[in-house]
From TrEMBL:
This is Calycin-like protein. GO terms for biological process: lipid metabolic process; response to reactive oxygen species. Residues 1-16 form the signal peptide. The lineage of its organism: Eukaryota, Fungi, Dikarya, Ascomycota, Pezizomycotina. SUPFAM superfamilies: Lipocalins (SSF50814).
Length: 196
């Protein structure tokens, strides 16, 4: 009984305390964006207006997160076409110096729990498996002339354009939108699409 009374007294004293916040000069607000969590990874919310038939064709990567074979590459493109089985054929090309590189893979729709459209599991030969069971290609925004695509946990960003060389101000606005959608601004680079 004595322990119970002591705990009640301590709890009452703690609830009456006012702990001052530490002063900070940081006036920025935390960026909070919608996401899905499957117990393993976080996934950006896909664009509800995504239409696969409209999305197929050639895209030029004008900005994003450099990684793997595209780090330092120029003329990065992606060609998407529909396979007979409903998956999407993915052909990525680029140039490193004057050397062309190309890789072909497949994009399969991810489970409905991740979104009805614009969520894919993309795989390439020899690619290591990811610890995330869900999609690794999420179309966050699709507007016909451009697409903002992210991977799980916001690790890799692709800003794609139908035009190989859109105006710099246009690319900057797409980058700003990607940041509003959760991308890390300091990790984003513009990609070179000249001399292709």
């Amino acid at each position: 009984m004595r322990v119970s009374a002591t705990l009640i007294t301590l709890a009452s004293a703690v609830t009456g305390l006012s702990i001052p916040r530490s002063e900070s000069n940081d006036t920025s607000e935390a960026r909070v964006v919608p996401a899905q969590f499957d117990g393993h990874c976080f996934y950006p919310t896909p664009d509800p207006g995504f239409q696969l038939d409209d999305y197929l064709g050639t895209w030029y990567q004008v900005a994003g997160t450099p990684f793997g074979p595209t780090a330092g590459a120029r003329c990065v493109t992606a060609e998407y076409s529909l396979n007979d089985n409903g998956t999407v054929k993915v052909v990525n090309t680029a140039r490193i110096g004057e050397q062309p590189i190309s890789i072909e893979g497949t994009a399969a729709p991810a489970g409905q729990q991740y979104g009805s459209d614009g969520v894919f599991q993309v795989s390439f030969p020899g690619q290591p498996t990811t610890p995330c069971p869900g999609p690794n290609y999420i179309v966050q925004e699709y507007c016909g002339d451009h697409a903002i695509v992210q991977t799980q946990n916001w690790t890799t960003l692709y800003i794609l354009s139908r035009d190989r060389q859109p105006e710099t101000t246009v690319i900057d606005s797409w980058i700003s939108q990607a940041v509003r959608l959760g991308s890390n601004a300091s990790a984003i680079s513009k990609f070179n699409q000249t001399g292709c």
